[in-house]
Design goal:
The protein is α+β, with helices and mostly antiparallel strands. It has one domain: Hotdog Thioesterase (Thiol Ester Dehydrase, Chain A, Roll). The chain is 21% helix and 36% strand. It has a 6-stranded antiparallel β-sheet with strand order 1-2-4-5-6-3, with helices on one face. Strand 5 and strand 6 form a beta hairpin. It starts with 7 loop residues before the first helix and ends with a strand.
Length: 168
C-alpha cells in the first residue's frame, strides 16, 4: 500500500502541475467576486485553493462557490469524492456566514448526496442564510452540476465567536 503524501513535494507530485497554489489560499481571479474580509479569509484557505475553488458571489448571507472536478478528486468508483463535494458546500457556507465583523465557524453540518459527478464537470455551491438568532445561524447550501441538476443538499449550523475576522 502506498504511503500518504506528507510533504509539499509529495503533494505536488500527487496532484501534478494543474493544482492551484499549495502554500497559500485562494487568490487572483478566483476571489475577484469576494469582498475584502472574505478575500482575507480565503487567502489563508489552502484546502479550498488545493481543490481549485472559485468565489462566484459574496453578499450578506449568500455565497456561491464553484470548482471543476479533476481526476484526483474522485474516489475508488471514479466518481467525485463525497468529502470534496462537502468541502465545496462548506466553503460557500463559510463565506455566507462570515459577513459581519466577528469570525463565524461551523457548529455542525449535514449533507445528502443526490447525484454522482465525474472529472470535467463543474460543481457550484449556493449558500443561503435561512435564519440567525443571537450567535447561531442556519444555512442551506445546494450543490449543482453544470446542467443545473442537484448533486447535494447541505445544511450548516453556524456560531459567531468574539474573535475578529482576518484583515487584508
Amino acid at each position: 500500500m502506498a504511503e500518504a503524501a506528507t510533504t509539499r513535494a509529495d503533494v505536488e507530485r500527487a496532484v501534478g502541475d494543474a493544482s492551484p497554489a499549495l502554500a497559500s489560499g485562494i487568490s487572483g481571479d478566483a476571489v475577484a467576486a469576494a469582498r475584502p474580509h472574505t478575500r482575507a479569509m480565503l487567502q489563508r484557505d489552502a484546502a479550498s485553493a488545493l481543490l481549485g475553488m472559485r468565489v462566484e458571489r459574496d453578499d450578506d448571507g449568500v455565497a456561491v462557490t464553484s470548482m471543476v472536478v479533476r481526476p484526483e478528486l474522485t474516489n475508488g468508483f471514479a466518481i467525485t469524492h463525497g468529502g470534496l463535494v462537502f468541502a465545496l458546500a462548506d466553503t460557500a457556507f463559510a463565506i455566507a456566514c462570515n459577513d459581519g465583523e466577528a469570525m463565524t465557524v461551523a457548529q455542525g453540518a449535514d449533507v445528502t448526496f443526490l447525484k454522482s459527478t465525474h472529472p470535467g464537470q463543474t460543481l457550484t455551491a449556493t449558500a443561503v442564510r435561512r435564519t440567525q438568532r443571537g450567535r447561531s445561524g442556519l444555512y442551506d447550501v445546494q450543490v449543482t452540476d453544470e446542467t443545473g441538476d442537484v448533486v447535494a443538499e447541505f445544511r450548516g449550523r453556524s456560531f459567531t465567536t468574539a474573535r475578529p475576522l482576518p484583515t487584508p
